[in-house]
Specification:
Layout lengths: L1 E3 L9 H17 L8 E3 L14 E5 L9 H18 L6 E6 L2 H11 L11 E7 L2 E9 L11 H23 L1
Parallel strand pairs: 1-2, 3-4
Antiparallel strand pairs: 4-6, 5-6
């Protein structure tokens, strides 16, 4: 199952997502893989998934170069990590992140703590070069502590979504 905010419309990605979903279904059929794939529109800070049910989250995070300022990214990452921690199975759930700032992830991990840490220290930190851009692959494992929702998490996430939506609509009006 895959999801992305960019799938929420008006990004011109509908045909790309449809082609990708078709190729995944064809691959599954030709390799006799039982199951299905789905691409959905969702915001990573408010995942439409039940808690303690996900084995692995893989995410290509915004690098903060084109889609988010560094201040927006530093507000976004703790919300993302907390909601992923909510969904991941305790003790066995894992996250693999591709990101532009290793320090940004460490800072966000510290901000997610409301008592005991939700994640262990990164199990792997791998520097990579993506077309001349320095990046990091970071692997995290979910701790066995019970998840407790941070105060006002949903309100913070909804406010971020609302600001993003207003700025997108304002940009489109300015371009018209």
């Amino acid at each position: 199952m895959g999801g992305d905010l960019a799938l929420c419309g008006n990004e011109g990605l509908d045909s790309i997502v449809a082609d990708y979903s078709k190729s995944v279904r064809n691959f599954q059929a030709s390799n006799r893989i039982i199951g299905s794939s789905a691409m959905m529109c969702w915001d990573a800070t408010l995942l439409p998934l039940r808690g303690n049910m996900v084995d692995h989250v893989i995410s290509d995070l915004p690098f903060g170069l084109r889609c988010m300022s560094s201040s927006k990214l530093s507000s976004f990452l703790p919300l993302l990590l907390r909601d992923c921690a909510r969904c991941l199975r305790t003790q066995s759930g894992q996250m693999t992140l591709l990101c532009g700032s290793y320090q940004g992830i460490l800072d966000a991990l510290l901000q997610t703590e409301t008592g005991s840490p939700l994640f262990t220290s990164p199990t792997s930190v791998i520097p990579v070069n993506i077309g001349g851009i320095s990046a990091w692959i970071i692997q995290l494992k979910r701790n066995d502590v019970s998840f407790v929702q941070a105060p006002r998490h949903r309100e913070h996430a909804r406010a971020m979504v609302q600001r993003r939506s207003q700025s997108m609509h304002g940009t489109k009006r300015a371009q018209a």
